[in-house]
Design goal:
Subcellular location: Mitochondrion inner membrane
Strand content: under 5%
Number of domains: 2
GO cellular component, one term: TIM22 mitochondrial import inner membrane insertion complex
Shape: elongated
Helix content: over 70%
Main location: mitochondrion
Protein name: Mitochondrial import inner membrane translocase subunit TIM22
Radius of gyration: 26 Å
Number of helices: 7
Low-confidence stretches: none
Pfam families: Tim17 (PF02466)
Length: 175
């Protein structure tokens, strides 16, 4: 009886609701393998976090460029008595522009990568998609970012990022 139960109710045809399909062709089996590989790549937390980190880096480039353009510390008015030529001024500004934007890109990319990685891992572990995942991911990211500055920065980073994540998720889900 137990063997009959396994053969009937636990067979692949019964579990996957393929009662009328006599069997899969070689092409169908190959397509299923490709679909399985594609699904595992799309559900990869590391790949997802890397893509979000790259996108955050691009956003960091835009934000860094904007912030550098409105930053008043890069002007030379009243500092030197001799005026610089346009080319010399351009070279001087460019030399201070690149490290400024590079720093912003690195920080945005690191933040985006860490947050999305933690959120994905927490979501997979909990097998649930809700606001709590964002709060946990925000707390973990904030704690990791404040870790080298001591325990108060770690706790403050955790609380700040968790609160910000909660507010953003609440706002996005209300729309």
């Amino acid at each position: 009886m137990d063997d009959l139960y396994r053969n009937v109710f636990l067979s692949d045809r019964y579990i996957n609701y393929r009662f009328l399909v006599p069997g899969l062709t070689q092409n169908d089996i190959q397509l299923q393998k490709v679909a399985k590989i594609q699904r595992s790549v799309q559900e990869s937390c590391l790949l997802r976090a890397t893509m979000i980190g790259v996108g955050s880096g691009v956003l960091g480039t835009l934000v860094g460029t904007f912030l550098f353009s409105i930053n008043m510390s890069n002007t030379t008015v009243g500092v030197d008595d001799k005026p610089l030529s346009v080319k010399q001024e351009f070279v001087k500004q460019y030399k201070s522009f690149v490290p400024y934007v590079k720093s912003t890109v690195k920080n945005f990319a690191k933040l985006g990568f860490m947050y999305s990685l933690f959120e994905c891992l927490i979501q997979k572990k909990r097998a649930n998609s809700d606001i709590s995942n964002s709060v946990y991911a925000g707390c973990t990211t904030g704690a990791f970012l404040g870790l080298k500055n001591g325990p108060f920065a770690t706790v403050g980073g955790c609380a700040g990022f968790a609160a910000f994540s909660y507010l953003m998720e609440k706002y996005q889900r209300s729309k």
